[in-house]
Amino acid sequence: MRVTFATAEYSPIATVGGLAAASAGLVDALRRSGIDVDVVLPDYTSRDKGIIETVELHVPLWAGPATAKKIKHRQAGEITLIDAPGLAKSHPYLQPDGNGWLDNTDRFMRFSAAVAAFVRHTSPDVVHLNDWHTATALADLDPTPPSVLSLHNLAHQGAAGREWLDLIGPKSDHYEWWDGINPLAGAIALADHVVAVSPHHATEIVEDGNGFGLDGALQAKGLALTGILNGIDTTVWNPEHDRCLPAAFSAADLNGKILNREHLVNELGLTDDDSLLAVAVTRLTDQKGIDLLLPLINLLDEIPLRLAVLGSGDRILSEQLAAAANDADRFTFVDGYDEDLSHRLIAAGDLFLMPSRFEPCGLTQMQAMRYGTIPIVTPVGGLVDTVVDLDTQPRVGRGFVMNDVSSTALISAVHRAVRKCRGKQLENIRTRIMSVDWSWDAPAKEFIKIYQQISR
Ligand code: ADP
Prior knowledge:
By secondary structure, the protein is α/β, with parallel strands linked by helices.
């Protein structure tokens, strides 16, 4: 089976966030299962080396000229890069000052038109689109080919002005939205199957008022909207072979985990005692609920617990965390995005705190469990699918699920965790959560089933 997989990000060629890891992780597993995948990605760097094939694409005048350049990447394998006006930039979406490029709408409409032209040229069995950056491709494919749309982040929909209705292709009426167009809404309507990044999130987004304005369009899909949990890269996140860690460890031998904790407590200057260490690794945005940790910091001596947070983003929140860290021996905050430190923190932690307000899937709770670090999470999105509460289901539990999204619920869950996570019981929980398979193998099988159903 041949699949065209179009995405704006792909690790390690173009990485901004979770979309890059999810695209590369899924495609790698699909290819290992024998699916022939053409990955189509914008050519952000105007690459001129290592091109093995070039095809001029037949796109409408406004979108061209567009060229498909096939490369063979050492890690990512064969990738088709789309060269079209405006696509090459220093960052896929953002100007150096942090604002979006002013021509982002034009850029990704051109990319989508090139994806449609590539599909006409190659006639794959299935077209798999990801997020709004690829969504108007279906406007220019008549008849609509067997198609899947993955929703990684409903908060970004690519809404644009009415003038696009005359440009994007014969099926543009499906994209009409108030007084303009909505790429995501159009692709949701046209795709044979729509996939959210976790089963629970798929049920949340069809609730009235919970679908980022697209609840109606999503409800109309009925059974053609499902959730498939993201995987993580279990070769990068492997405590037995992780070059970032001072000591390796495994479910069978947890001694290295204790060494990692000692090392980190030293490195970050935290109180050196035998209390549990809680960690958080996160973007600092309202979504992640890190502000809910602030009241916990005053209670750390009393519980007792140590807490280390690595995060970057919102300036006010980072200032609040830095100020709290000044006054506390049991709390430390590192402001920044630091992959090596994120691995060391997750390896060293006993508990992983993730009080998200919403979470389409969430990767860090899976990374934490792979490293034997017990998650404390809110009952939202993919956190519900991945973390079973240890008090409600002691035999299969994996962590602690808060009653609601609040500081009080977080503090009670921390108390429950501190009571339960001791001695042999702690070791048993660690061993259990470390043996869960978070790889992309199972998700890839589910996607293959969908591909088979829609291409019959
Ligand atoms: P998001 O909503 O930010 O995509 P996820 O949990 O799905 O949240 O994925 C976040 C990814 O980014 C994870 O791989 C996590 O380890 C990483 N990450 C988040 N914040 C940081 C940070 N400050 N430093 C290093 N890595 C981070």
